[in-house]
Here is the input.
Amino acid sequence: MSVTPTDPGARAPRRLLVTGAGSGIGRATAELARGLGWSVVGLDLRPAEDAPYPVLACDVSDERSVQAAFDGAARLWEGRAPDAVVHCAGVYRFRAATSTGAADWDSVVGLNARGSMLVAAAAARQMIAGGAGGSITLLSSIAAVRGDAGEPSAAYSASKGAVEALTRQLAVEWGPDGIRCNAVAPGVIDTPMTTVSGNPEAFAQVLQRIPARRLGSAEEVARVCVFLASEESSYVSGVVVAVDGGQGAA
Ligand SMILES: NC(=O)c1ccc[n+]([C@@H]2O[C@H](COP(=O)([O-])OP(=O)(O)OC[C@H]3O[C@@H](n4cnc5c(N)ncnc54)[C@H](O)[C@@H]3O)[C@@H](O)[C@H]2O)c1
Here is the structure.
């Protein structure tokens, strides 16, 4: 697959905003796009100072913080909207369902589901005002479609189910404005979020469930995020792309 650094005929580099750009999949996506010559702005709770692109402080679960960060990105782009947004900021908390209280639920669903809505809405407002449409990619998970007996998190699974429903709804609602909305559903990826690799017994069990018999890398997910953010996927909208080494098919 080749991903062109700019739209055919376009003069300016493609503008990409990546949330969760300080770590894991978000960082890999931002770095890959930057390497392709795109103009990248990251958002993160803890902005990385060593990143070769601006990373603005933002809490994606907070409406005002999200709007302020999108305003800040627009200032960096001289008032222009992003061409694409990849929303990677999220949390996972291993907790048995019987121990999941309201605070646990709200902290996970309130970040993963609400953050996806707030980020997508802020992106769409700018894209609609800019009149050029765009691409929004949300991050789901294999947990949206498969239960996990080993390290369960009911709140996390529900939050990612919400992300997939949101993806379809937004693709339909904003399609006439030229905005595509898709989700990427990683399996088990080797990032700081993944706790299972620290537990050899659980790790061996997880590998048995993955046909590829290995964890994915952040870069392998980033390549799909960048494809969906690019014009290479110009007629792809409303879908969830699994990047899971075949786990969803097993
Ligand atoms: N790693 C996996 O195995 C895996 C599997 C399936 C889905 N995912 C999803 O992929 C996405 C990225 O995961 P990752 O593995 O790169 O995780 P990560 O923990 O490496 O990175 C997550 C980033 O989000 C940021 N973040 C957390 N809360 C935030 C907030 N309130 N506001 C702004 N930024 C915030 C963190 O600071 C961090 O930089 C998440 O949505 C996750 O649910 C990951």
Notes: The helical segments are 24-35, 63-76, 102-130, 154-174, 200-209, 218-229. The radius of gyration is 17 Å. Residues 19-20, 22-26, 44-46, 58-61, 88-92, 111, 139, 141, 186, 188-189, 191-194 surround nicotinamide-adenine-dinucleotide (CB under 6 Å). Residues 15-243 form a domain with the Rossmann fold fold (CATH 3.40.50.720).
